[in-house]
Design goal:
Shape: globular
Number of domains: 2
CATH class of the largest domain: Alpha Beta
Number of helices: 14
Strand order of the largest sheet: 3-2-1-4-5-6-7
Strand content: 15-25%
Length: about 425
C-alpha cells in the first residue's frame, strides 16, 4: 500500500526513499502557516519523523499530514526558540528547518549549525517598504557565506510579521526540495534563492475562476486562491483519484475512486467556507468559458493545453498555464490586453503534438494506455504558487513575467 502511494516519486532517477524514511527533521516555526504547510508536505513525500518548536500549528494541515502518511509522527512543543537550552528537543535531527521571523532564532540556529555541523535550511517571507517576497538559503559549515545578514530577520524577538499563504506554498516547496537533497546526499543551491515583487493590494474576491485539472497542481492552485480570499471557483476534471496520486495530491488521502474535481471543490468549501463548483468533463472546443474572468490551466497533456490556449485567445480570457515534471516547472501567462503569445504558441506545442485531435488523448486515457510519469509534490507547490501570484499581480496592475523553475539549478527561476 505504501509503495503504491509513493510510486510516482520512486520512479525518479536517483531517488532514495530510505533516506527520507529514516530521517528525523527539526522545524522552528512561528505564529503563521509556514511550518504547518511544511509539515503537511514533508509527510506527503514520506518523511516520517518531525519535531516542531512553534507557538502554532494549523490543526487541519496537521490532521492532513497524519492521514496522508500512516507512519508519520509529530512532536510539537508550543513556544519560541529563544535559548540554546531548548536544543535538547532537536537531539538526533539530521537537519533543522528555520521558518521563523525573528533574528534571535536565526542567529542561534546558524551558531548551532556551525558548532554541531548540522545543516540549517532557512526559508521565510518578508515585506519591506513597497516590496514583498521570500528567501531560501541552506547553511552548511564549511561554505560560509558573506551575506548571511540577508537571511536574518530585522525583528530581534518574536513579533507580528508579514505572512502570505501563496508565497508560503512556494517557500515550503523549495525548502522541502533542499531537505530532500540534503538527506539524499545531493547538491543544494549554492546561492540565496529569492523572489520579490511590488506589494499587492487586496485582490478582487468576486472574480469568477475556472481551474482545469484537479490533480496536484490544481489542488495547490485551489489552496492558493483560497488563501487569497477568492470565493467563486469551478474545478473541471474527468478523472478519478488513484492511490499513486497520494504522494502529492494532499487533500485526497481518503477519497480513492472518487472524482478529483468533486472532492477538491467539496474540501475547499468545507475548509474555507467557499462556494466552489465541480464539472466532471474534459475541456474541449465546446467548453463555454464566457462567464469566467480567468482560466487556470493545470492539465497534464499537450492536447488539452492547445485547446485551452485557442479558446482563451478566441474569447479574450486571461489564461494562467502551469506545468511540472519531477524536477522542473513553468508558468506561462496569456493576457489578452497585451495580445501576448498563448502558452501553446510560446511553448511550441503545435509542433510537439503535430496538430493531433485532442479526443485521441481522451480515448487513450480511458483505455489506460499510458505509463505513469515520475512526479513529486515540490514542483507542483512552486508552480501553483507562482500561478496564483501571477494572477494577483495582473489584478493589481502589475506585469508578471513567465516563470521557468529548475530545481537542479542554483538559479532556480
Amino acid at each position: 500500500m505504501r509503495s503504491r502511494r509513493l510510486d510516482r516519486q520512486l520512479r525518479i532517477e536517483g531517488w532514495n526513499q530510505q533516506a527520507l524514511d529514516n530521517a528525523k527533521i527539526g522545524v522552528v516555526g512561528d505564529n503563521d502557516l509556514l511550518a504547518s504547510l511544511y509539515v503537511m508536505s514533508a509527510s506527503a513525500v514520506g518523511i516520517n519523523h518531525i519535531v516542531v518548536l512553534a507557538p502554532f500549528l494549523d490543526p487541519l494541515l496537521v490532521d492532513t499530514a497524519k492521514k496522508l502518511n500512516p507512519r508519520f509522527t509529530l512532536t510539537h512543543l508550543e513556544g519560541f526558540y529563544t535559548h540554546p537550552v531548548i536544543d535538547a528537543l532537536f537531539k538526533g535531527c539530521r537537519l533543522i528547518v528555520d521558518l521563523s521571523h525573528y533574528g534571535l532564532a536565526n542567529k542561534l540556529l546558524i551558531e548551532k549549525g556551525f558548532r554541531e555541523n548540522i545543516p540549517i535550511i532557512r526559508g521565510f517571507c518578508y515585506e519591506k517598504n513597497d516590496e514583498q517576497g521570500f528567501r531560501v538559503f541552506s547553511y552548511l559549515r564549511g561554505r560560509e557565506w558573506q551575506e548571511l545578514e540577508q537571511i536574518i530577520s530585522s525583528s530581534h524577538l518574536p513579533n507580528g510579521h508579514f505572512d502570505d499563504g501563496v508565497l508560503d506554498t512556494i517557500v515550503t516547496g523549495i525548502v522541502l526540495e533542499e531537505t530532500k537533497n540534503l538527506l539524499m546526499g545531493q547538491d543544494v543551491s549554492d546561492d540565496l534563492i529569492s523572489y520579490a515583487r511590488k506589494q499587492l493590494n487586496t485582490p478582487n474576491d468576486q472574480q469568477n475562476i475556472l481551474v482545469v485539472g484537479s490533480g496536484a497542481l490544481g489542488i495547490f492552485v485551489g489552496l492558493g486562491l483560497a488563501y487569497s480570499k477568492f470565493q467563486n471557483i469551478t474545478f473541471m476534471d474527468p478523472d478519478v483519484i488513484e492511490i499513486t496520486n497520494l504522494n502529492r495530491q494532499v487533500l485526497f488521502y481518503d477519497a480513492i475512486g472518487n472524482n478529483k474535481a468533486e472532492i477538491l471543490s467539496e474540501r475547499l468549501n468545507n475548509l474555507f467556507d467557499m462556494d466552489n463548483k465541480a464539472k466532471i468533463a474534459y475541456f474541449d472546443k465546446e467548453t463555454d468559458i464566457a462567464s469566467y474572468d480567468a482560466v487556470f490551466d493545470c492539465v497534464d497533456n499537450f492536447e488539452s493545453r492547445l485547446v485551452l490556449s485557442e479558446k482563451c485567445k478566441e474569447q479574450g480570457t486571461i489564461l494562467i498555464s502551469g506545468g511540472t515534471s519531477a524536477d522542473a516547472g513553468q508558468v506561462v501567462i496569456f493576457d489578452p490586453m497585451k495580445n501576448s503569445a498563448t502558452p501553446a504558441e510560446l511553448l511550441g506545442l503545435y509542433d510537439i503534438v503535430e496538430k493531433r485531435n485532442p479526443e485521441a488523448y481522451q480515448r487513450e486515457r480511458a483505455a489506460c494506455i499510458y505509463q505513469p510519469d515520475p512526479s513529486v509534490i515540490m514542483t507542483n507547490q512552486v508552480a501553483a504558487g507562482f500561478m496564483v501570484d501571477s494572477y494577483r499581480m495582473l489584478l493589481d496592475g502589475q506585469k508578471p513575467g513567465n516563470i521557468f523553475y529548475d530545481s537542479s539549478s542554483s538559479v532556480r527561476f
